């Protein structure tokens, strides 16, 4: 086992209590623990960056039984995508101290990771934090399900999040003629048009306004704005939200429209919900009449996408054809607050915690 000198203790973020609604900072705690000891078949990684992602709301909410990854209980350390430096590795293994790797044991300063679950960071990406974006989901959905064509009108809901902030740019690079986004605030809308190339961004129909006044008011407001932005309808939907925005998008589908579902923020970030359901009213006659497709995207169904995306993403970053929007915070002690801000819609792009 090849190793370097290690500190005796490190820190990790643990779930302190099951949230009653959206997670509060008090539901998480930063705990000091013994630094993991090197073990056969594992590499010890000092994490440099990890991602704060919306799916944690479901994993820490006590309702993750049907998800493909395990839920969390009080006392458990959180986990998620991370980039780090190998500090201890088996002598006969493929990794050496100093190697930069990606894995899924973020939310801690040091992680003991099975060699099989650790992947060398691809040098195609110039910024290590770029490995933590959800761009592969956007790319996969737009190339495998929606199959964007030259001249398409594309709608991206939740455009200021980790997926949406890249999806609009990807759609344009794939040939879309018009890219429309949705977000919760005028400030984010201005950034999406000024910095990321969206033609127009709608702020009506926010799921955060649900439960006030007429139950259909959000739908009517959003449908009216969408009709103004795309009077002839849409060819492609990349949906991160669901709810009334998905309802209106189906109603706006043109013949042969391809609708790809990537997220469900209307349910995941609903304070009154459980984080694992996102009901939406769908006009199935509209889908049938227009010959439209409605499919959900998961990376495990498209294992070839990740490598293809990384290669194209790296080339687009180096050429300046794509921007990488990040909300970066420094220090593991700020991670609970970063999750709080993400679930309240206060972040922009992918949220990354840097560990100095």
Automatic annotation (TrEMBL):
Domain annotation Enoyl reductase (ER): ranges: 21-353
A GO molecular function assigned to this protein is: oxidoreductase activity
Give the highest taxon in the source lineage. Bacteria
SMART domains noted in UniProt:
PKS_ER
Name the UniProt record assigns to this protein: NADP-dependent oxidoreductase
Q: Which organism is it from?
A: Streptomyces fumanus
């Amino acid at each position: 086992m090849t190793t370097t000198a290690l500190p005796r203790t490190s820190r990790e973020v643990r779930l302190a209590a099951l949230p009653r609604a959206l997670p509060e900072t008090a539901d998480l705690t930063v705990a000091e623990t013994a630094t993991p000891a090197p073990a056969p078949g594992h590499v010890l990684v000092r994490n440099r960056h990890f991602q704060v992602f919306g799916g944690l709301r479901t994993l820490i909410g006590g309702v993750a039984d049907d998800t493909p990854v395990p839920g969390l209980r009080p006392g458990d350390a959180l986990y998620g995508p991370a980039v780090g430096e190998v500090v201890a590795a088996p002598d006969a293994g493929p990794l050496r101290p100093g190697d930069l790797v990606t894995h899924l044991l973020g939310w801690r300063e040091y992680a003991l990771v099975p060699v099989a679950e650790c992947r060398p960071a691809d040098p195609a990406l110039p910024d290590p934090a770029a490995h933590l974006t959800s761009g592969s989901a956007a790319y996969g959905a737009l190339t495998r399900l929606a199959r964007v064509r030259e001249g398409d009108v594309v709608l991206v809901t939740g455009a200021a999040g980790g997926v949406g902030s890249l999806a609009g740019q990807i759609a344009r690079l794939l040939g879309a003629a018009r890219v429309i986004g949705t977000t919760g605030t005028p400030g984010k809308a201005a950034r999406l048009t000024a910095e990321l190339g969206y033609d127009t961004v709608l702020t009506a129909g926010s799921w955060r306004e649900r439960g006030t006044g007429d139950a259909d008011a959000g739908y009517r407001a959003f449908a009216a704005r969408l009709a103004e932005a795309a009077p002839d309808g849409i060819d492609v939907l990349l949906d991160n939200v669901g709810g009334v925005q998905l309802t209106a998008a189906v109603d706006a589908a043109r013949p042969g429209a391809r609708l790809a579902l990537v997220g469900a923020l209307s349910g995941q970030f609903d304070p009154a919900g459980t984080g694992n359901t996102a009901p939406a009213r769908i006009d199935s006659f509209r889908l049938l009449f227009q010959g439209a497709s409605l499919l959900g995207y998961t990376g495990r169904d498209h294992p070839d996408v990740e490598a293809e995306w990384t290669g194209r993403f790296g080339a687009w970053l180096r050429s300046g054809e794509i921007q990488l929007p990040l909300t970066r915070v420094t220090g593991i002690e700020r991670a609970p607050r970063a999750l709080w801000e993400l679930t309240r819609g206060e972040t922009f792009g992918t949220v990354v915690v840097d560990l100095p």
